[in-house]
UniProtKB/TrEMBL annotation, chains A, B, C, D:
Family matches, as InterPro entries: Homeodomain-like_sf (IPR009057), HTH-type_TetR-like_transc_reg (IPR050109), HTH_TetR (IPR001647), Tet_transcr_reg_TetR-rel_C_sf (IPR036271), TetR_SbtR-like_C (IPR049445)
Pfam family, one: TetR_N
DNA-binding region: 36-55
Taxonomic classification: Bacteria, Bacillati, Actinomycetota, Actinomycetes, Pseudonocardiales
Domain of life: Bacteria
Protein name as catalogued: TetR/AcrR family transcriptional regulator
Keyword Transcription found: yes
Organism: Amycolatopsis acidiphila
Keyword Transmembrane found: no
Length: 211, 211, 211, 211
DNA sequence: AATGAATGAGGCTTCATTCAT
DNA sequence: GATGAATGAAGCCTCATTCAT
């Protein structure tokens, strides 16, 4: 599930790499994308030198974390598609799981610079494309099933997912309820049913492609 | 509508203060809360010294921006409450306007540290409380009118607003459509109508209060 | 007794000047010669602008304080010479009073830079010369009286005075006893009496003249 | 004799640390305790970063210098005690050597802030205590020998030493003579011999303990 | 290959001094 | 004349990155 097989690394090197990635993920989440490299290294239990051997600079580390995150989302999406009996249920599951992915994804989205870095990375781009493909299929399926309103596209759903990834401004112990309720509201809004038609046109994956 | 009239300042000092605040708002938005103070000063057309005379450190500046932002939201909420014929319409307007506030609000929410700073500021706290009061009245009103589903509270709506304030990952020219559609979806989800009841209990303002 | 008659100043201007000088003296004593000019101004109850009108820069202020201090020492010396019945008693009094002068003198002697500034100031130079003249007479007199050992000069005594001006590293309440005892020891050392002759030659005022 | 062996440092790191300390000592002496850290670093032949890695801030550096200085004084005192045939001679030697220690000791004593920093440092405190212990023994010994007047204590001698550490206001080439003569005067004052008794009570180490 | 020391650029902040009100 | 606002140079310190051990 790791984004970057990176030739073959010796077992210990691989372990180092993983520890660094995990440390970076955690610290980005807790402290934002500006944590000193040295602290990431310390948390990973290695020296800075080792960190830099693996990731030439901060941007490389950010990209690696982003790739890892998106890879995880892709895996979730594919699992949902493959394991759920109906596309609607896959959609519901996908949206529910976003909550779980939140912690891992939004980390890198904190600073505009970090975001720019990620946006430019082709590897990450690639994952995003694949995710959108799966989403496209799920959306189409759910509409064919008559469960999902027909005036939404994968782009719309993607936006919802991204919103659900946002850290809500609620105390830790309420955060889960909050997300559950928002999700339920969104599902109610997504359900096929007479209602006010959405403004604009159906949003596709392409609409969200940057630049 | 500025948060801090700050006794009487000499005319030029006041103008400087306002320019600095505006510059900070803009640069926080564009670059995140870590922009060099010097750049903010340059953009405001003053020397760093002036900036520091007015705002003793970065945190003070962040707080001032946050206060200004929340004051704006409060003004919007009160205007919506006072000017719209029904509470439901006030609610719709409020959610629509969030989009306009986005640029100004989310600025300071980028880094965990910045967020902590804001959370602690009593002045800002105060604005948040007042905003929630207005929201409470609007929500109750819309429910009395039978337009708003009865299993939501001001807390739920506040969360939606905060989500709408998030920068969506879409190209600039699509961003507006995206937000319009998300908003419409949310409104569809909020409308009183037979549907799946929301999980958990109605969220009140208190549920979102930190700590 | 003020060092610098400075043409004629209007009464209020003169009062400002004196307040600034007093404030500077006090703050140099408490905080060292690097206290912010602004704090000196505040303590004097005037704006910085006023301070700078009176003293073009920090060095000018330091010089003024030094002049004031030395003028005071000179006055003490002359008073001792004029009022005491014997030269030895004048000498004893002078050394005793140094204690009182300490607070005011050592202030400006804290930083090497400040010291350089003072050393170069001709006005202060002048006071030092006059002081040495008085001291010369007192020393000669006391030796003629047979009270003061004959192998010391005004230079030697001046050094002792300067040592007595040093802040001793003792708790506030012990400081006075300490100085009294040191002084008594020194006087015992100075008294004419068979003992080991001092090394080197008699130190005159000229020996201490810098450069 | 260095105050802080600081676990084991890599050979080069240790050398750097020592160079920094030496540079700081020299520059504090010449320029006072406010010399720019960068200049200290330059003089030590290292980058600022290195300086800061070793001494987290200026205060840490000041403390380290102070500790080193006091350690040196202690060593001198112990050597004098151990190597001189009589306690009186040990005392004379100690007072003479103070002159040599001057350059290194008074450095850090220039600004009130620096002094406060040092006073608070327990490590330095410790050295001061040990020094006083040695002094106590020397004083008692010299009195038993009948050489030292009986109405002085280690506290009195400590004060004399501290005075001798003061930079005398004399041209460089005269400074040594000056100190020799002052020292001789003091010794004459200290010698056991009928004379005027000292005022107050014998000063002990405790009398000088701050707070 | 791993470590952690060294470097120095760059951001933060203070404060001496100047200048508009 | 007095005031206090504005300026910007200069010192402090941090941290990304490089490099010796």
């Amino acid at each position: 599930m790791t984004a970057d097989p990176d030739v073959r690394l010796r077992a210990d090197a691989r372990r180092n790499r993983d520890q660094i990635l995990a440390a970076a993920k955690a610290m980005f989440a807790e402290e934002g994308p500006d944590v000193p490299m040295e602290e990431i290294a310390r948390r990973a239990g290695v020296g800075v030198g080792t960190l830099y051997r693996r990731f030439p600079d901060r941007d490389a580390l950010i990209k690696a974390v982003a790739q890892d995150n998106f890879a995880q989302v892709l895996a979730e999406a594919e699992a949902a598609e493959g394991e759920e009996p109906t596309a609607w249920e896959a959609l519901v599951r996908l949206l529910s799981r976003s909550r779980a992915l939140r912690l891992s994804v939004h980390l890198a989205l904190l600073s505009p610079q970090a975001w720019a870095t990620i946006r430019e990375d082709p590897q990450t781009q690639h994952f995003r494309d694949e995710i959108m493909d799966v989403l496209d299929r799920i959306v189409a399926g759910a509409q064919r099933e008559g469960q999902l309103r027909s005036d939404v596209g994968a782009g719309d759903v993607a936006v919802l997912v991204s919103l659900l990834l946002k850290r809500v401004p609620a105390p830790k112990d309420t955060a889960d309820v909050v997300t559950d309720r928002v999700l339920a509201l969104m599902l109610d809004g997504l359900r096929a049913r007479p209602g006010s038609p959405l403004p604009g046109r159906v949003l596709t994956a392409a609409d969200l492609r940057d630049r």
